[in-house]
């Protein structure tokens, strides 16, 4: 499985944020997108997830377990917001997402209980999501990545609000995902502890090495 992006460009309003971004990443690999604020990191991830249209270029998932027209169909997207209802319990939130996504061909998600245990918060899934601390909420949003199998993880500042122990836990989750043949693309200002991860640096409008690796 390979995710191939060719000549991607995107606008914010009338302004061109980045231009002619190309890269390729295979199953088992991670790509970390870096750059200063406003360089287009979040915009690039949202384009890949299908949440924003590209001004030009394409992003394709090749040789996936089932045919896909858009990368987002095979992806989990974890953005700045946690995408969880505050009034519902953690269990209710995760049960909804498990049923909503279902499993993409080639893998199987874990149970809600197993996902909660994996993020180190076993025993509090009965609480309303809004009762949790910011760090606990972020951990539970990470559990959403586990309950339904998606080969592509698109992660925007995934370790925001986490302490060091939680950062290490999340690195372990990503490495386990890569070991299953999945791939991950993350935008971050903080080290993620992903051994062997590639880097793509954006400098605003054009990448440092246009379409190349840092």
Q: Tell me, rounded to a whole number, the average pLDDT.
A: 87
Could you tell me how far the N terminus lies from the C terminus, measured between alpha carbons in angstroms? 23 Å
Q: Label the CATH architecture.
A: 3-Layer(aba) Sandwich
* Number of beta strands: 9
Q: Strand-residue fraction? A: 25-35%
What count of helical segments does DSSP give? 5
SSE series: EEEHEEHHHEHEEE
Could you give the order of strands across the largest sheet? 5-6-7-3-8
Largest sheet: 5 strands, parallel
Tell me the number of structural domains: 1
Structural class category: alpha/beta
Question: Can you tell me the CATH class?
Answer: Alpha Beta
Shape: globular
What helical percentage do the residues reach? 25-40%
Task: Describe this structure as you would to a colleague.
Residues 3-214 form the ABC transporter domain. Belongs to the ABC transporter superfamily. This is Heme exporter protein A. InterPro entries: AAA+_ATPase, ABC_transporter-like_ATP-bd, ABC_transporter-like_CS, ABC_transptr_haem_export_CcmA, P-loop_NTPase. The protein has 214 residues and is an alpha/beta fold. The protein has a single domain, classed as P-loop containing nucleotide triphosphate hydrolases (Rossmann fold). It has 5 helices and 9 strands; from the N terminus they run E-E-E-H-E-E-H-H-H-E-H-E-E-E. The protein has helices at residues 41-48, 90-101, 112-118, 134-147, 164-179, and strands spanning 2-12, 15-26, 30-34, 56-62, 75-78, 152-156, 183-187, 198-201, 205-206. A hairpin with a 2-residue loop joins strand 1 (2-12) and strand 2 (15-26). Helix 2 packs parallel to helix 4 and helix 3 (112-118) crosses helix 4 (134-147). The two termini are 23 Å apart. Mean pLDDT is 87; it is low at 206-214.
